[in-house]
Amino acid sequence: HKIGKIRKVVFSFCKYSSRYDAYLRGENPTTFRRELANGSMMDLGVYILADAIALFGKPNSVTSNATLLETKVDAAGTINMVYDDFDVTLLHSKVSDSEIITEICGEEGMIQIDTPSLMNGAYLTLRKDKVKQKLSVDNEYPFMFQLKDFVKNVKAGRIESEKVPHDLSIAIFEILTKVRKQCNVIYDSDK
Hints:
Layout: E1 6-14, H1 20-24, H2 40-56, E2 61-68, E3 74-82, E4 87-93, E5 102-106, E6 109-113, E7 122-126, E8 132-135, H3 144-155, H4 166-182
Parallel strand pairs: 1-4
Antiparallel strand pairs: 1-5, 2-3, 3-4, 5-6, 6-7, 7-8
């Protein structure tokens, strides 16, 4: 690790929803609705949760909280995941924008990522020289790597991706379910 022992990680995905104004006017947009199982956690938070679990595995413990709307769907929230030597904080919101970027902080430096789900920019800064280096990120088409992986697996006759194995998907789902329970986010499909 160029950044040394990891000590603190923050993932952030906060984006004001284009449908939130309609919600505030009392309209019934196709977001913030329990019957559609959506909200901040399921729309934005899932991306950064998946990134964190893919990078660091399942945490030792998880605590979370959320701001619920009148529809009982989460508008924003925070997830804290504890690992042996560091913790990960995830921030997600559909009712506010944020310029907080993702940071993976180690004893010798840090990695910053502009938008984790899109990987549109990543930077390395080492503590000793404080020079911010742009890391190479092939991002002409942000989700192309997923499509290429899918096609590769289909052609090989595999039903499971080597890059995103079923165990990873299950771990993400388990943590997401735990977070929803802690935040009292219950969808119609849960009943």
